[in-house]
Design a protein that fits this description.
Radius of gyration of chain A: 27 Å
Distance between the termini of chain C: 29 Å
Strand content of chain C: under 5%
Structural class of chain A: mainly alpha
Number of strands of chain C: 0
Mean pLDDT of chain A: 74
Largest sheet of chain C: none
Radius of gyration of chain C: 21 Å
Distance between the termini of chain A: 70 Å
Oligomer: heterotrimer
Strand content of chain A: 5-15%
Helix content of chain C: 55-70%
Low-confidence stretches of chain A: 197-209, 279-293, 361-374
Low-confidence stretches of chain C: 14-18
Number of strands of chain A: 7
Shape of chain A: globular
Largest sheet of chain A: 3 strands, antiparallel
Shape of chain C: globular
Number of helices of chain C: 13
Chains: A mainly alpha, B mainly alpha, C mainly alpha
Number of helices of chain A: 16
Chain lengths: 439, 161, 365
Amino acid sequence: MGEYFKNIYSGLQSFVAGLQLSLHHYHSRKKLVATLQYPHEKWPVEERHIGFDLQDYNVVRSRLHVDINDCIGCNQCMRACPVDCIKIESVKPPKGSEFDPGTTSNGTQKRMLVARFDIDLTECMFCNLCTYPCPEDCIYMVGGPNSAKHQIEYEYSQRDRKDLIFHFANPPEEEILAAGGADYLAKKKGLPVPEKPAAGVAAKPKSTEPKINYTPVNAITDRMTRSLAKKAFTAAVRAGKTPSETAASVKQALEEAGKYTSELDAVMESIGKADLMTQAVQAPETKLTKPDQGGLDIKLLNDLTDRMTRSIAKKAFMAAVREGKDARAVADSIQSALQAANKFSDEVKSVLAKLQSAGGASAATESDQKPASVALNIKVLNGISDKMTRGLAKKTFMAARREGKIPAEIVTEVKQTLEDAGKLTPEYAKIIDSLQEGT
Amino acid sequence: MAEVAFIIVAAITLASAFFVVFSPKLMYSGVALFFTLFGVAGLYVFLYADFLAATQIMVYVGGIMVLILFGIMLTNKIASTDLRQTNRGRFMAGLGAFILFLFMAYIALTAQWHTGSPQLLDATVAKLGLLILYQYLLPFEVASILLLAALIGAALLSRKK
Amino acid sequence: MTSVIDSMLKLFGSPQAAGSSAVSLIVAVVIAGLVVFTIMAVMAIVAVYFERKVSAFMQDRIGPMEVGIFGFKGGKQFWGGIGQTLADTVKLLVKEDILPKEADKKLMIMAPFIIFIASFLTFIGVPLSENLVVSDFNIGIFYVMAAGSIGVIGIILAGWSSNNKWSLYGALRSAAQIISYEIPIGLSLMLVVIVAGSLNFGDIVAWQAEHRWFFIHSPFAFVAFIIYVIAGVAETNRTPFDIPEAESELVAGWMTEYSGFRWSIFFMSEYANVLIISIIASVVFLGGWLSPLAIFGVHFTWLEGPLWGLFWIFSKAVFFVFVMMWFRWTFPRLRVDQLMYFCWKVLIPFALANIIFISVWELIF
């Protein structure tokens, strides 16, 4: 009988304890939630390494990407590919044609128009062999050392297998015609090849054709939101709306999708002010400098003698310019890239100084417009040695960033979480603080 | 209105009782019995015997029916759906039923029926309880002793030896 | 207390005129039935959503977050996937209806309706507020228990007619469990009946308004309350007493062979039973439609009335539904022998002792 009542008593005790535990989880769900809303949110990917010297050979084998504007159509990657998953077709303008295929970001004059650049990623075996021969560094694996050029993408699922063939070059037909590609087009469509060569005919060359200016929209950091905004933006511009109308329709589209936050106000404002159309290449004398470089000139970097150094510097330069940084920030990012590669020298310093002074004045005003959020780099957290702690910190970081908090808030939140979990040491605190400094 | 409803309920009761006897499948007989018992509960409702009707449902439908279905499922070929009713000894059973019928018909014809429309009583439960515990205490206790004996017997039978 | 049907009859026409009374009775019954059916259907849809969210939060997940209603997706966490169960309902209703070849088709088709009728009949006697009950019985509690005991027949038939070993074992277990746990439920409700002196829900609540709520009436009434909640969870076949449909042993128990519309009827009845058990718990033990402030002797007249009664009764019931989900995601499933031990050797002796003690208590105080 004593046993019977003892059982009932301990049963009641564990009953209450169990209920307390699950209620605790129910109440602190915001902190404890362990899942991500997968297609919308993704875990940051750990980088993997090959080779001996990590700085030089660090490669993430994620997905091939081509910056098609930099491609000169040399076919070297196609030849290097062991499984023949790259297919390039290019159109060479006939002699005397006025067609200008443009220049690469390294300043090389292109000689032909790349009409087709397909990579079949169902066949790609991620050997990375195609990236080495590229003279313009325009084909690369995304992420890792290239994350400045293209963010990492470890999952690119499609509904149809055919969609895994990525078409990087999609020049409009007029452009191919203008480049003298009438034969090519006819062949592609299975039509008989026309007799008359179409060189230099009526169709407008690319250089004078107005293009839609996406710069203000690109300031949006969240990918989903950005693509939605771009869609609405394009539709509005095509419909011939004024900048302020365009801004309104973009805003409406985002609000309908539930993606509109107050941080986007600044972006909307800049859309309202911006020129919606730009001339891709305006005049012969500015040919070598893209208009959005803010007066910075990549040629200054040609003063660097060492080839390796130069190419790293140019890469960093391009990446920084694309992000819309001002002269000082560009110089800083070049400097940090070179320091990371152990290539920083006095020579570089002087060149960078020149660079800064050249572009400083013109670009200074731009820096105010940059949104205050999210340039934090999660990789800084890799310095945390304990695996559990690192995971927790990263999770909190991602969650905070998702909510669109400012850097200082993110840092305090990460610290708070670690402290709650009893994992915060002074060493880790320093690492987390350096998140903010690294921006 | 009440007559129509009464006829419907009575018809369901009789039809399903018929089905209980003549259905070839044992399980169907069991299910038909469910409707019979339910119909009887409905007949109680027409007599304003709400407590009795609910008791009928609770004891017979909720308890005895479950036991019967349990019994059918546990006796034989537990997992097969074509459990047959054999109806062996039809003649003797028919004779017995006929004699019973004659007996009941005699009673029905000769009895002094209390006629008149049923009274809507306010709370039957309290009166029933008082009747059971004062006037009919002995039958009530006998029934409970019978049930207790059945319970003890069942426990004894199911014990491991 | 007047019932819905009575007041509707008054509304439609006098019962004296013979022709109109038949028509108006039918109309009144049909309308009341539709209302009950709607409550059951809506309850099932809402409860499934509620259950999925609660389970997710207790397991450190977020739960459904994708499906909205007409593009409205709700907020960040709780209402994030507000349209999920609506979409699931549509999916269930358009699903192919499968009857196994060797199954007993007539019984298999009939079984879900017996279960549904059981919860439907039970709902008729359940009060939703003061003066808001489809049909007000003198024997309210007893009627509800009796009607609730029909459902087990449907379960047995569903399990047997599926011609599947899992279904059959599920049905056997379910029948044994439901019959056993009806006893502690009946005994704990009997305690209340002894004290209040009536089987009618209205009288019981009136007693509580006059004296005090039953769960704080006496220590024995509180024990009865605990026994009622535990046995109620078992009566609705929910975890930790879900051995009839134990997923890890019996696939889905007696529902294994069902799909589509019939299965959704099972689901609807199951959640209707959860709601019934919760409403009865709140009516009998937690003062029903009385405002909680009445415990402290505070009476605001503007907090009373039928609509507030509906609100209070449902908020108490929703609390019980939450408690049931809380149990479900906290405790592991009992073994069959533990289940029977718990009922016959713990709950029933305590409930019986309770009745004796409460009688003594009533004689003394």
